[in-house]
Specification:
- The complex is a heterodimer of chains A (215) and B (241).
- In chain A, strands 4-3-8-9-10-11-1-5 form an eight-stranded mixed sheet, with no helix packed on it. In chain A, strands 2-12 form a two-stranded parallel sheet.
- In chain A, a hairpin with a 5-residue loop joins strand 6 and strand 7.
- The model of chain A has no long low-confidence stretch (mean pLDDT 93).
- Chain A contains three helices and 13 strands; from the N terminus they run ααβββββββββαββββ.
- The mean pLDDT of chain B is 95.
- The chains are: A mainly beta (215), B mainly beta (241).
- The interface between A and B is large, with 82 and 89 residues.
């Protein structure tokens, strides 16, 4: 038997990751279309949402050069992928134009990032267990030697979160809250079309250190 | 039927998060253990890309930002290789994106203020989908070394950043390739975040005289390995795992 190859080792994306993955943010136009600009597309079913936040380092400073990739199921809990588990078949096909994937870039001055999408549905997990609605995030930046995986859950899904098998793996239950985005009440009476907004801050270190996954 | 899981990532082969000689990692490294997850649908799926997502010339950095028939300054190179998984199977139709400094070591980025000159004909990024054998190729110029504020006199070896997707979010990877023979590789604190010297060797693109075009461009070969997959007892996938 031939021994397996070794996975190519990771290196930091560095401070200029935007040149490669989002050149418009780096300050120049080169491609006819940038990738990762539209996560859900115009046909997506479900509730339109906006997620905003910042990524903080161990000193409490917001990272101003971070890039976050988003990966999520549609409102029916289905991933747009040919190998999505077949037990989800009854939920139907993903809408045309729904990519479930996108990129968010922090503002170079403030560190604020945001993306707009639709709220995902519950996903079929291992052994048929239901996984609460969540968005998978992958974080790269200068100083991060290997991309960090985490998940965003929603604070207005308390019952689903309480029975989520991934949440249940977090022995220090106090840390579960680091994965839960908080719905913002902005008093939207003046703008009924505005998407529901969730706040999700990520802490790389410190007392509020976000739970990161080895997937 | 549930698709097979991916091999467990060997984190001793990758750089740890906390590497004090690379100073920026000190405040940006998680200190608590990662939570180990078995693969679920969220990890074994990932975004897919089609030829319509990109343009045919996006992988030619010699022309994709050049103006009025101009050409970038620097040593012209063909960078090519294959994307394989740990079972040595090709990973077809996957997106490979690269970015780099120009020949003077300067990035086209509004936050890069290095003394090196910007090249008006060089953007510094490219992208391509692998073919059915997992092969990819870029035309570009060899990037220059440049100084950075880590130690007082640290210089990054010439390098190109590489981002690759694979078939699943579990395979997502960003790395950097270096060039065979560069004396700065052994001195670089970012290279040295990798604990195993054999793993560093995997990041060094090799001079490839067989693909070098006489009187045109020097070729370097760089193969990329993504995570492999286990077999399943009820395999019905014609391509194997």
């Amino acid at each position: 038997m031939v021994p397996p190859l070794k996975e190519t080792p990771s290196q930091t994306a560095g401070p200029y990751v935007h040149i490669g993955l989002a050149p418009g943010a780096a300050g120049f136009e080169i491609y006819a279309a940038e990738l990762g600009q539209d996560i859900a597309g115009p046909n997506a079913r479900g509730q339109r949402i906006r997620v905003q936040g910042r990524v903080f380092d161990g000193t409490g400073a917001a990272l101003k050069d971070v890039l976050i990739e988003v990966w999520q199921a549609n409102a029916d809990g289905r991933y747009p992928h040919p190998e999505t588990p077949t037990s989800d078949d009854a939920r139907g096909q993903v809408e045309p134009g729904f990519r479930g994937w996108g990129r968010a870039i922090s503002d170079f001055d403030t560190g604020d990032w945001q993306f707009e999408t639709v709220k995902p549905g519950s996903v079929c997990g291992r052994d048929g267990k239901t996984v609460a609605p969540h968005i998978n995030l992958w974080i790269v930046a200068r100083g991060i030697n290997i991309g960090l995986n985490t998940r965003l859950y929603f604070d207005d899904e308390p019952e689903a979160n309480a029975s989520d098998p991934i949440m249940a793996l977090i022995e220090q239950t106090e840390r579960q809250k680091t994965l839960i985005a908080r719905r913002q009440d902005h008093g939207r009476a003046d703008d009924a079309q505005a998407p529901v907004t969730y706040r999700f801050d990520i802490h790389l270190q410190g007392p509020d250190e976000t739970v990161f996954f080895d997937i | 039927m549930t698709p097979p899981d991916y091999f467990t990532r060997d984190r001793r082969w990758h750089p740890p998060a906390f590497t004090p000689d690379y100073k920026t990692s000190v405040s940006r490294s998680p200190r608590l253990p990662l939570l180990s997850l078995e693969n679920t649908a969220s990890e074994i799926t990932g975004p897919t890309f089609a030829p319509s997502d990109i343009a045919p010339g996006d992988n030619d950095l010699l022309t994709n930002f050049a103006h009025d028939g101009g050409s970038p300054i620097g040593e012209r190179i063909l960078l090519h290789g294959r994307v394989l998984d740990e079972n040595a199977r090709p990973v077809p139709n996957t997106l490979v994106e690269i970015w780099q400094a120009n020949a003077s070591g300067r990035y086209r980025h509004k936050k890069d203020g290095y003394l090196g000159a910007l090249d008006p004909n060089f953007g510094g990024c490219g992208r391509v989908l692998t073919d059915d054998q997992g092969a990819y190729a870029f035309r570009t110029v060899k990037p220059g070394a440049y100084p950075w504020r880590n130690g007082i006199n640290d210089w990054r070896p010439a390098h190109i950043h590489v981002s690759v997707f694979g078939r699943a979010f579990a395979q997502r990877l960003i790395t950097q390739l270096y060039f065979e023979g560069d004396p700065l590789i052994a001195r670089c604190p970012i290279v040295s975040t990798i604990p195993d010297p054999a793993a560093v060797q995997q990041l060094i693109a090799r001079l490839d005289m067989n693909e070098t075009l006489p009187f045109d461009m020097i070729a370097y070969r760089f193969d990329i390995v993504l995570r492999g997959r286990r077999s399943t007892l009820f395999e019905n996938r014609p391509e194997g795992n």
